Amino acid sequence: MKRKEVISQAADRAYSALGSKPGPSRMHKNVQRRAVVTVAMKPYCTHSEIGEVIQRDRTAVYHYLRHHEDNMKHWEGYAEMYYTVKPEIDDVLAEYSVKLKISEIENEITRLIQARDIVKAKLKAAEDDRKRQA
């Protein structure tokens, strides 16, 4: 699955957990939903990726991130929404991140094995040359 699809799936699960859909509405609850989805996705996504999911530009993402701590303390219902959304986002995106990291490690292992085999072949060729010269 491609990164964009995984991010979209995570957002869909988050909005579903809140019983809503993403949209451009400025209604209080919709703004709260966008804010909590933004903050929950931050460890895994770029600001542009998050902006696309919440249907806002990256400046809105910066705004939501900057005000998260105050929102947790003072915005009624925000913390509850955040704690509802966070596990949904983590479930999808953390798993994807781990799989991606495993894939990167496996690729690095393959590259190192190939490099080792090249070095071994060169050493063997040098040894064979020495034996022929002796």
Low-confidence sequence ranges:
none
Report strand %. Answer: under 5%
Q: Characterize the overall form.
A: rod-shaped
What pattern of helices and strands is seen along the backbone?
HHHHHH
Q: Give the CA-CA distance, first to last residue.
A: 58 Å
Number of strands: 0
CA radius of gyration = 24 Å
Largest sheet: none
Helix-strand makeup class? mainly alpha
Helix content: over 70%
Keywords:
single chain, 134 residues, mainly alpha, 6 helices, rod-shaped
What does this structure look like?
- It is a single chain.
- The protein is mainly alpha-helical and 134 residues long.
- The protein is built from six helices and no strands.
- The mean pLDDT is 90.
Give a quick summary of the entry:
By secondary structure, the chain is mainly α. It has helices at 3-17, 28-41, 47-54, 58-66, 68-74, 78-133. α1 (3-17) crosses α3 (47-54), α2 (28-41) runs parallel beside α6 (78-133) and α3 crosses α4 (58-66).
Task: Summarize the SSE layout with pairings.
Layout: H1 3-17, H2 28-41, H3 47-54, H4 58-66, H5 68-74, H6 78-133
Helix pairs in contact: 1-3, 1-6, 2-6, 3-4
